[in-house]
Structure formats: structure tokens, C-alpha cells
Amino acid sequence: MEVYLDNAATTALTKDVLEEVKFVSEKIYGNPSSMHKLGVEAEKVVKSAREKIATSLSVSPSELFFTSGATESDNTAVFGSVYANSRKGNHIITSKIEHPAVLMCFDKLEREGFNVTYLDVDSDGIIDMEQLKSVINEKTIFISVMAVNNELGSIQPIREIAKLKKKYDFILHTDAVQAYTKIPESLYNMADLISLSGHKIHALKGVGALVVRQGTKVNPLILGGGHESGFRSGTENVVGIVSLGKAVEEKWDKERIAELREKLKSGIEENCDVKVNCYHDGESAPHILSVTFNGIRGEVLMHALEARGIYVSTGSACHSNRFGESHVLSAIGLSKNEIGGTIRFSLGKLNTEAEIDYAIECIAMEAKKLK
Ligand code: PLP
User: Fold this and answer.
1) Residue 275: which CATH number?
2) What is the rounded distance in angstroms from the CA atom of residue 98 to the CA atom of residue 104?
3) pTM (2 decimals)?
């Protein structure tokens, strides 16, 4: 049996998305900018996807811009806002557990002379609002805090951060890659800028979006032919965009996914010597489960599971960058050994109860062998 439990890394296409992708690849190959019939057809499907995605987030279609993925969305949000608003101040804030697509941008801005605050998180992987309130000031122009962390599933208080806009004039960005479709959009859609990615929600890789709420001053990053109302040039990835629209149309059964995660968690806890990180039923994203196996190297367990057809991630090897071992697990206070023993299980629409039963059986067996 093959059990794919690495859905926070990427997801497989669902049957309906795949069918739509095949249809559009074959039949709707025109350039949306072309004036003839084939161009108009392509423009129509892009418009329809834009409307579906915008509706799902309760934003206007004119506030949604397609990109090549969340890395581009994050880079555009950070650099685009900070450079456009740098006359107003030079203080910018983010958290220590952001994805490198955000952290690396802050790192660059810091080297350029911007004053950066990296917010701590508690052992539940949640930022400290008191710390934020103590550092924010008149010079703060930009805050970026992710809606859901990709290694822990912890949900950040985006709504609380947004309330600070009553007193301070800053742009709020949230990387909602792991939140979108998985937790209610009302928990993060009040941000000025929202990053999304297709391949985390059963759409194609290489497509994403950035929501830019009306009135938010952001410079475009990619210049050229003026596509996406001049905000993001480059011929639209029509097939990718349609796949994203289709994936959003097919609802996530959050309760079912949460039940499968609960089953997996209990099964692992009953059979192995573990510590489950940042798990709060109903208060963390339903698809992510971070587990530290005491006295076991996560990488070894990961490969033992792989040999049984089960695919998971280690807490330490998710980015080939300067962060090395997980900066996220380190930020919640795990020791080096604990970080090395941490596995991330992440569920998707396609997982079944039988798969979870099989996974528990194999995890129990392999963890016992490795102890
Ligand atoms: N932000 C988060 C939270 C992610 O999990 C990912 C995926 O790894 C990204 C950004 C980057 O997304 P993409 O692969 O679409 O560039």
C-alpha cells in the first residue's frame, strides 16, 4: 500500500482537477491576451478561476493576482510593500518561524539597512502579541506573519495583529499557503496581502496568487507586458490557474481530515515513545501533525517508512538553505536531539482511514525496531 503523508510539501492532483487540466491543456491553448476566439476562451477560464478563488476568500476578483507560486507571492509582498513605503519608516516585523520565502527577504532587507524585529514564538508555536505590541512603533511599515505554520500547523493571531492597524499605519502580509481551504478564511482574510500556492491544495505546481487588498501600496516585482493589470507581467499560466480554481471548488472535508489526524496521533502515542508538538484539536490546522520520536533519528525512521510505502517529512530536512536544521522546531524550544527525531505527517484530501491504520501499524513496528 502507498500512503502519502507529506501533503504539506506538495499534493497529488484529484481526479477532477486532473480531468480539468487535461481538457484545458488540449482545448484552451490560446493566449488570454489574444483578441481572437481562442484568446477569449482562455481569458474566460482565467476569469472564472479568479472569481472562484476570490469568492472563497471573500475578496474582490480585482484584488487577486496570479503568480508562479507562493515564493513569488511572498517576495512580491515583502519587497513590493517595503520598497513602496520606505519613506514612511524603516522598521519591519516578522516571526522566527516564517517560511524561507519570507525570512530570506527580511534577511536581505536587514542587510540593506532596514530595522528588523523577529518575533519569538511560545512552545505552541504561536507569536507573543505582547512582544509585538512592545516593539511596534510609528516607524513600523510592514508586518509579515504566516497564518498557519508549515511544520507545526500552529495558527497565528492574524486578526489580533490586524487590530493594531487602528493605531499604527503598517501593511499586514500573511503567508496563507498552509491555511487556505484548511481553516476558516475569516481567521486571516483581513490581512492586506495574502499569499497562496496551488500545489499545496491539490492543484498544479508553479501557480499561486497574491491578494492585494484595495488601497495597499505595493510595487510590482516582475515587469513586462502589463499582465494582471500591470501588477505581474508574463503570459498567464492558464492551465495552472484553472487547476487552482478547480481545486478550490472541491471542498476540503476538514472534519474528516481532523478525525484522521486524531486517529494517527492516538495510534502513534499508544505504540511509541513520543512527544506530539503543538497539537490542539480545533486550534491548529487539521492536516499537520508534528511528532518527536524519543531516541530515534527521524531521517532513519523516514526511510524505514518509505521502504513500506509511507511518505513523510523530517523536521530537519525541509529546506536546502542556510537555515540547516529546522529553525521552526528550534524556535519552539526543541533540543538538537529532539529536532533530529521529529517527523511531520501531513494529510490531504485523498487519504483514507485504511491508510492511516496501515501507517500506524508500520510506524509502531519500525519505531520499535529502531529504539
Ligand atoms: N510558504 C509556505 C508556508 C510553504 O509551506 C511553502 C511551500 O513549501 C511556500 C511558502 C512556498 O510555496 P511555493 O512552492 O508555491 O513557492
Assistant:
1) 3.90.1150.10
2) 10
3) 0.97
Which ligand 1 atom sits nearest the alpha carbon of residue 148?
3
Confidence of residue 324 (pLDDT cuts 50, 70, 90): low
As for how many domains the chain has, the answer is 2
Residue 105 among the catalytic residues: no
What is the CB < 6 Å shell around ligand 1?
69-71, 74, 99, 101, 146, 150, 175, 177-178, 197, 208
pLDDT in tens, 85-132: 999 999 999 999 999 999 999 999 999 999 999 999 999 999 999 999
Burial of 153 (0-12, 13-18, 19+ CB in 10 A): buried
Q: Whose CA is nearest to atom 8 of ligand 1?
A: 9
For strands 140-144 and 288-293, give the pairing: unpaired
Assign 173 a pLDDT band (cuts: 50, 70, 90): very high
> Which of 197, 223, 249 is a domain's end point?
249
Q: Which atom of ligand 1 is nearest to the CA of 205?
A: 15
Q: Indicate if 217 and 287 belong to the same structural domain.
A: no
Nearest CA to ligand 1 atom 10: 70
- Residues 134, 283, single domain; the answer is no
Phi, psi of 43 (to 5 degrees): -60, -35
Q: What is the pLDDT of residues 17-69, one digit of tens each?
A: 999 999 999 999 999 999 999 999 999 999 999 999 999 999 999 999 999 99
Asked if residue 239 and residue 156 are part of one domain, the reply reads yes
Asked if residue 192 and residue 70 are part of one domain, the reply reads: yes
- On whether both 206 and 102 belong to a single domain, the answer is yes
Q: Is the pLDDT of residue 221 over 70?
A: yes
Q: Which of 99, 193, 194, 327 to mutate for ligand 1's pocket (most ligand atoms within 8 Å of CB)?
A: 99
Contact (CB, 8 A) for 118 and 87: no
What is the span of the domain harbouring residue 276? 3-12+253-370
DSSP letter for 14, please: P
Instruction: Please name the residue whose Cα sits nearest to atom 7 of ligand 1.
Output: 9
